[in-house]
Amino acid sequence: MKILLLGDYSNVHWTLSEGLRKLGHQVCVISDGDSWKNYRRDIDLRRRSLCKLDTIRYISDIIRTLPNMRGYDVVQLINPVFLDLRANKILPFYKYIRRNNKKVFLGAFGMDHYWVKTCLDCKTFRYSDFNIGNRQRTDEPFNKPFIEDWLEGEKTEINKIIAKDCDGIISGLYEYDCCYRPYFPDKTRFIPFPINMEHITPIRHDGHKGVRFFVGIQKGRSEYKGTDIMLRALERVAAKYPDRCEIIKVESVPFETYQNLMNSSDVLLDQLYSYTPAMNALLAMAKGIVLVGGGEEENYEILEEKELRPIINVLPNEEDVYNKLEQLVLHSESIPELSKQSIEYIHRHHDHIKVAQQYLDFWTSK
């Protein structure tokens, strides 16, 4: 098959392309590298700034790239807003892609209308990026732009149009599946995120003194992701056990730099408000790094995982995070077993070739 993967978040599409190529398919990834993360792509489509001149250049780049967006058996969009333009400017490009390719699929991989709408109902999730129990997290300044953009704005309309019009919708996490399945039960399929383990050497937990905790901070998104709360809890643990706890903290660095810094750690703290591990956490688990983050039972159920429980699940409050981290420091002998389970978990559910085959099966069924 000839496949176009348009846009990228957290290296999902590039990793999927590696699996598809292993299975003998022709794949092109067109993206901006997910901004400063600078993930690999075949064709770079990056907007340098929001100034008028760079906007004109970016639109010109899109137009020049249009011939590379036609003639595919399958096109998959990373998001309804798959270009770095205002939502109302994207629809003509979607129509062009729809008209000039056989099938088009939408990824449910992150921020969109159905995600925001479902979180704000305060019923589907016990907690999420936008609710804690019955309380909507609408007053926080970091959430307001997302709500304004996706609940009733221009992005809402294009999201609804593409979701209704496309051939199928792939959800990458349990949460995203919950958001789309009630509206599109016949065209939504859950497929786990892909991880390429071919070049990953598992980290050896060599008995060094203390536990090394890794925290990656995205500038401007720390409160949204709960990193601020997790870091406060970790700093309290480190203050109490200074000889048994080490913190490795990085902020908004390119992907390759981020990975190199992560490799010296034992434990990753990631996404307080999630039920499930996403790409960053999954990659750490593939290395044998223990995850403290989203590991609710719903995550294991959708994967039909009956045995492994490698994730230290935390609730969205500082005391629960503190207690879990303290226990990990006091019982660091548990880390090697959790590390082993983490690697096996990725092999079972996220191997990029297995995942690529699931995509192929779904695409060809539609």
Verbal overview:
By secondary structure, this protein is α/β, with parallel strands linked by helices. It folds into two domains: 2-194 and 352-365, 3-Layer(aba) Sandwich (Rossmann fold), CATH 3.40.50; 211-349, Rossmann fold (3-Layer(aba) Sandwich). It is built from 15 helices and 14 strands. The protein has helices at residues 12-22, 52-65, 87-99, 113-119, 144-150, 154-165, 174-180, 222-225, 227-240, 255-262, 279-286, 297-303, 318-330, 335-349, 352-365; strands at 2-6, 26-31, 43-44, 74-77, 103-108, 131-132, 135-136, 168-171, 188-190, 211-217, 245-251, 267-269, 290-293, 312-313. Helix 1 (12-22) crosses helix 15, helix 4 (113-119) crosses helix 7 and helix 11 (279-286) crosses helix 14 (335-349). The mean pLDDT is 94.
